[in-house]
Write a structure and sequence with these properties.
The protein has 615 residues and is α/β, with parallel strands linked by helices. It contains 22 helices and 14 strands. The strands form two sheets. The chain has a twelve-stranded mixed sheet, with helices on both faces. The chain has a two-stranded parallel ribbon with strand order 1-2.
């Protein structure tokens, strides 16, 4: 009975609104008609003034129209009052607001982004992302200082609470605050109440990592072999020809069973191929000595910049990024990158290596209720800058296919044009913070961004340049896979601290990490460097032995010549008979061999032959 009564009341409410709208429309038409008649010239009949009528004024003061009143079903208008439809203060009308509300009303679990802004924030119109659609990837974009990092933190916190592990690079150290409960103030509570967020401070489980141990975190390393020639070529800034040659070098190392663990392994291999192994370089084909030399110089310069500490063992097992706590929350893995400005290529390419390694290791899972991991790719423009065609192809393929393995990727950058169109086409969710158009290039980027959005009731060129901090234009993929209406959104506040976690607390967390025992100490096992050093030592000894053999042969020949000369001289001195040496059965050669000098030379020859000659 209660449901029927509610239905009847709803129908009555709808009828009253329709009646009010019709009355308002009628009043508008009547007023328009009255104004039109007032503008017409008087008819001839009007010129006839009745006898005794008062004089007619030459000018008229238009009578004021009745003040219009808003339509209110509970307070019917009095006769003669003009009725105007209920209006909103923002750019969207009632029907458009209803469409937004319906577009984000999902049945399954969702990440709460914030509330619709239409003049003021509307807490009754929440903006959300279906949890099952987060692995369809997304983009968080906006100018510096517009709130991208806090948006990332809001999403990471909710993913963790939903049991989804998160990986993110902490470029500025701000994200570390997710491990510390936030503190409230009047301003924060007023903002969160305005969007319907019941805010409370909360800390989340965090694991800190650092590239090669440079920074606060469990050291993260990768081997040169697993990094591969394509990603390494991107780091070294090689052109297409040099990248192809580097691929052949990797193939040679695999054929010769030469493990490429760190940069000194690869450097030693290139030294070998341009030195003692020149014949091997020719056998590989397609690699010139000059190209190998360029690659060698780039590797040497790269190592001198300190990048060699990243390459090595033990290599991080990327499945360590997919852990959950005992209470079911997802662990947020934060990679500290304190020197990203000096080594942007290494940072961005390492993140791509993580994705590629996950892609190789994880099984196919298809569509699942929630992602197995969400990966936030901050400063994404660094990844795509000066990238080769093969590199972009590898990224596009990874982004397209890793979804079916349960991994979601969010690219975080300043403008959508930083991301290639083939990659941008794979992104289901868009969170666009304020854009600035201070230069012609900025204006062009703004227009290009606007063209990528679905049709909406917004003037997006105007809205995108006037968004406040913590506001964004949002559109996501709904549970059916269709794009939701474009929504001007005031975003939620993080529950973790908006300030970095204090350094002592971070160090304490790292020292108590169970991963430190596995990855804390670098291991330098026998690899290509040691194996090639052994080959060089053998080649050196062989070269020395060959030189000693030749020297012995030359000395023996000289001695023979000397002996022959002495024999001739002796024959000239005693022409009448045999020499005393011949009579005694000896000769100059045998006498020399038996001498101390001869024995010394023989010992040197023997030592050279058997490889025990001192260097």
């Amino acid at each position: 009975m209660t449901d029927e009564l509610a239905q009847v009341q709803a129908e009555l409410e709808a009828a009253r609104q329709a009646q009010a709208a019709a009355e308002a429309r009628l009043a508008q038409l009547q007023a328009k008609d009255a104004r039109a008649r007032a503008d017409l010239p008087p008819s001839p009949a009007d010129d006839a003034t009745p006898e005794g009528a008062p004089p007619v004024a030459e000018s008229y003061d238009e009578a004021p129209m009745a003040d219009s009143v808003p339509a209110d079903p509970e307070q019917p208008a009095e006769p003669g009052e003009s009725i105007e439809p209920a209006a909103t203060d923002g750019p969207l009308g009632i029907d458009e607001v209803d469409a937004v509300r319906a577009g984000y009303a999902f049945d399954g679990p969702a990440l709460e982004m914030g509330a619709l802004v239409n003049g003021e924030a509307d807490p009754d119109t929440p903006v959300r992302i279906p949890l099952a659609m987060v692995n369809r990837h997304g983009l968080i974009a906006g100018a510096t200082g517009t709130g991208k990092t806090k948006t990332l933190q809001v999403l990471a916190e909710q993913l963790s609470a939903a049991g989804v592990p998160v990986f993110a690079a902490d470029i500025k150290g701000d994200l570390s605050g997710v491990a510390t409960a936030g503190e409230s103030d009047d301003r924060l509570l007023a903002r969160t109440a305005g969007i319907g967020q019941a805010w409370e401070g909360r800390a989340f489980p965090v694991e800190y990592f650092a590239l090669g141990g440079k920074g606060i975190g469990v050291p993260v390393r990768a081997t040169v072999l697993s990094f591969g020639p394509t990603l390494l070529a991107k780091v070294l800034g090689l052109n297409d020809t040099q990248e192809s040659s580097l691929g052949i070098v990797f193939a040679y190392a695999d054929e010769q069973r030469l493990p490429l663990v760190d940069l000194k392994d690869l450097r030693e291999l290139l030294l070998w191929l341009t030195g003692e192994g020149k014949a091997e370089l020719k056998r590989l084909g397609g690699i010139s000595t000059q190209t190998a030399g360029v690659i060698l110089r780039e590797i040497t310069a790269f190592a001198e910049q300190g990048a060699d500490v990243f390459f090595g063992e033990p290599e991080i097992d990327t499945r360590e990024l997919m852990r959950t706590t005992q209470d079911g929350r997802g662990v947020i893995s934060l990679l500290e990158v304190p020197e990203v400005a000096s080594q942007p290529a290494l940072f961005s390419t390492f993140l791509m290596w993580l994705l590629a390694d996950l892609f190789e290791d994880l099984p196919e899972v298809g569509d699942i209720d929630k992602p197995k991991l969400v990966f936030f790719f901050d400063e994404a423009h660094l990844l795509f800058k000066d990238a080769s065609k093969d590199f972009l192809t590898a990224i596009t393929q990874t982004v397209r296919l890793i979804r079916s393995k349960g991994v979601g990727i969010f690219f975080v950058t300043q403008t959508p044009k930083d991301v290639p169109s083939d990659v941008l086409a794979q992104l289901g969710s868009r969170v666009q913070h304020q854009l600035r158009a201070h230069t012609p290039d900025d204006a062009t980027a703004l227009r290009q961004t606007v063209r990528t959005y679905p049709r909406s009731g917004y003037d997006l060129e105007q809205v995108l340049t006037s968004l406040g901090i913590g506001e964004a234009i949002v559109t996501v993929m709904d549970e059916r896979g269709a794009p939701t209406p474009v929504a001007w959104t005031r975003l939620r506040a993080p529950q973790g601290s908006m300030d970095p976690t204090p350094e002592p607390a971070m160090r304490q967390s790292v020292s108590s990490s169970p991963l430190l025992a596995t990855y804390g100490t670098a291991v330098d096992r026998e690899s290509a460097y040691e194996l090639l050093q052994a080959r060089l030592a053998v080649a050196e000894r062989a070269e020395q032995d060959e030189a000693a053999r030749k020297a012995a042969e030359q000395e023996a020949a000289r001695l023979e010549q000397e002996a022959a000369r002495l024999e001739k001289e002796a024959a000239r001195d005693r022409p009448s008979g045999r020499s005393s040496r011949e009579r005694s059965g000896g000769s100059v050669v045998t006498d020399f061999i038996g001498s101390r000098t001869g024995q010394s030379i023989i010992r040197e020859i023997v030592r050279g032959v058997f490889g025990n000659r001192r260097r």
